[in-house]
Specification:
Layout: H1 3-9, H2 11-28, E1 32-35, E2 41-44, H3 49-56, H4 65-72, E3 78-82, H5 88-93, E4 99-103, H6 107-117, E5 123-126, E6 129-130, E7 135-140, E8 149-150, E9 161-167, H7 169-176, E10 180-185, H8 191-196, H9 199-205, E11 208-211, H10 217-225, E12 228-236, E13 241-246, E14 254-263, H11 267-271
Parallel strand pairs: 3-4, 3-10, 4-5, 6-9, 10-11
Antiparallel strand pairs: 1-2, 7-8, 7-9, 11-14, 12-13, 12-14
Length: 274
C-alpha cells in the first residue's frame, strides 16, 4: 500500500474513491465515465491503473500541475500531448487550445484513446512516438501501457517490442505549420530527448512545457539555452508537505512529478504561486 499516495489524496477521499472504483470493477463490471475539471468527459477503462489513479486522486494525478497548466493557457495555439495514453491531458487541456495533438504509439493505449477522443473534432490522434530524431525505433510493450517507452540502442532487456514511427517536435511543428502554445511530455525516461528536438519551437514560439523529465544538469542547460525557467511542485515525504518551488531550489529529500518549463518572461506568473 502506497502510504505517500494516501496522504496526498487524503485518507477519506482515498477510501471513498477506491471503494467506488473497485465497485465498478468487481461488481458492475463496466468502465466509469467522469467529467474533468475543464468540462470534457472521458471514460476510465477498468483495466487501466492510470485510469484508477485519475479517479482516486480526483483528477489531481500530478499534485496540481494539470490545473495550473490549464489556467496558464489562453487558447492561442496548439497543444501537443506527447505520451497521451488514454487521453487525460489531451481532454483536460483541449477547451483552452486552438487544436490538440495526442501522440501515442502503444497500440493498446491507442484503442482506448480513440474511444475517448471520439466526437472531439478539435483533438487529433497521432499514432507515433516522439524523440530526438525522426525515423523508426523499437518500442517496449510493458505490462502496463503507461510504462511502455522507446528503447535505447544499448538496452538489451528481454521485453516484447515493436517498431514504431518517430517524429520530432520541431519537425512536426514545421510540417504542420503550427503555432504551439503548450507541450506536455510523459514518455517514461525519454522526455529530455523529445525536448532536445524542440528547441526551435521553444525559442521561436515561447511555448509552455509540462514534462515528466527529472531535474538534471542536461535539462537545466537546455532551459538556459532557450531562456526558460524551471518550476515544480515538490513533495517532502518525511514532512508530508507540498510546495511550489523553482527547480534550482529543490531541497534534498523532495520529490517531483512534473516540471514546468516556462519562458523567462512568464516566470513571474509562477513565482507568484510560490
Amino acid at each position: 500500500m502506497n502510504t505517500t499516495f494516501i496522504r496526498q489524496t487524503g485518507l477519506l477521499n482515498w477510501a471513498r474513491r477506491t471503494f467506488v472504483r473497485q465497485f465498478h470493477k468487481r461488481v458492475l463490471g463496466r468502465d466509469q465515465v467522469i467529467t474533468l475539471p475543464s468540462g470534457r468527459r472521458m471514460t476510465l477503462p477498468l483495466g487501466s491503473s492510470f485510469a484508477s489513479e485519475i479517479y482516486v486522486t480526483g483528477c489531481n494525478v500530478d499534485w496540481g500541475s494539470e490545473a495550473l497548466f490549464f489556467a496558464m493557457l489562453a487558447g492561442k495555439g496548439a497543444f501537443l500531448d506527447v505520451g497521451a495514453n488514454i487521453g487525460y491531458f489531451a481532454l483536460y487541456m483541449a477547451p483552452r487550445a486552438a487544436q490538440t495533438f495526442a501522440f501515442e504509439p502503444d497500440p493498446r493505449s491507442i484503442a482506448r484513446l480513440e474511444s475517448n477522443l471520439a466526437g472531439h473534432d478539435d483533438i487529433e490522434l497521432v499514432p507515433m512516438a516522439v524523440g530526438r530524431e525522426a525515423g523508426t525505433a523499437e518500442f517496449s510493450l510493458a505490462g502496463a501501457p503507461e510504462l511502455s517507452s522507446l528503447i535505447a540502442p544499448s538496452d538489451s532487456s528481454d521485453v516484447e517490442t515493436l517498431s514504431v514511427p518517430v517524429v520530432t517536435i520541431d519537425g512536426f511543428v514545421a510540417e504542420r505549420g503550427l503555432q504551439v502554445e503548450a507541450i506536455k511530455t510523459d514518455i517514461e525516461g525519454f522526455d529530455l530527448d523529445a525536448l532536445m528536438a524542440a528547441t526551435k519551437t521553444l525559442k521561436n514560439q515561447r511555448s509552455l512545457v509540462l514534462t515528466e523529465a527529472p531535474m538534471s544538469d542536461e535539462l537545466t542547460a537546455l532551459a538556459e539555452s532557450v531562456d526558460y525557467a524551471i518550476w515544480c511542485y515538490a513533495f517532502d515525504r518525511k514532512a508530508g508537505a507540498l510546495r511550489f518551488v523553482e527547480g534550482k531550489d529543490l531541497a534534498s529529500g523532495e520529490s517531483t512529478k512534473m516540471l514546468f518549463l516556462v519562458p523567462q518572461e512568464r516566470a513571474a506568473e509562477l513565482r507568484s504561486k510560490a
